[in-house]
Amino acid sequence: MKVADNMLMHTQGLAVGYGHKKSSTIIMEGLKCSLQPGELVCFMGPNGVGKSTLLRTLSGAQAPLAGDIFFQDKKLHELTRMELALNISVVLTDPVSVGNITVRELISFGRYPYTGWNINFSPEDHEAIERAIHETSLQTIQDRKITELSDGQRQKALIARALCQDTPVIILDEPTAHLDLNNRVEIINLLKGLSRKTNKAVLMATHELDLALQAADVLWLAGFETGLEIGFPEDLVLSGKIDEVFQLKGFDLKTGHLEKNIYKQNVSVVGDGYPLLWTKNALERNGYGTGADGGLKLEILSEHDKIQWKTNKGALFNSLEEVINYLDQLIQGV
Fold it and tell me: Which of the residue ranges 1-10, 52-61, 210-219, 225-234 would you say has the lowest mean pLDDT?
């Protein structure tokens, strides 16, 4: 989790919806949200709640009804179309209609903001294309036609095109829609890895709650009655916010976990029940083992529905986000 002063984008009093000649229809309002480098943000909520509308507004494709969107220190509506293209790339769920072109040619479209009207690729453009192909593992199919691809391969090619655009922010609307489980897992793992490796802010709308809980750094939860809730995934589980938004059927929040092979440090956790399960999930998702031989001990304190975490060094925390930030600072020697 990154510090607040490292924001790429943030909003103030944002309202989104549809404007008409005589009136406006507000779908979501009073929104205060932000995107930071190196984070994967999963945006979730029931169909019709306004996820796509908010994404279009944040990408500059649709004007807000009220409030402001800031890209770093500049208002989004003050950016030219070229500046938008150099800073925000978008992957939509709409069917791709690109004619008889290859995967490599589709990916190269991401360089158009840099080439001007003559579309002469520089060595830097070619390097960016090669890098996008490599980072999305599309080398073996780069010369195949888009029409010959599976849904999962096509989605990876679109992500590679956005990556080739080399923007600080990537916004994706349901990138795992219509994909089978293997491809859904692969796409979310790919986006998680890219956010870390490239230090880009990745915002994706998704319905994959189980996968989002294992991969996301931050969740945005939009409900018809709850507005927009933003927070650390496990904290939103333990607070009941996810149940409140989704009124879950067929998915047990009590069984989520993330497997990792290499840990930054082991942490011995003392506790029980669901707080223990989600504490371990938060630790493992962020690279910390939870074996009994951990040099650092973390005790879960639960009283009157209030959960706190205390280390054997006396540090006390009110959320798992604070715990992870503390551990990261210990590792970094801050």
Answer: 1-10
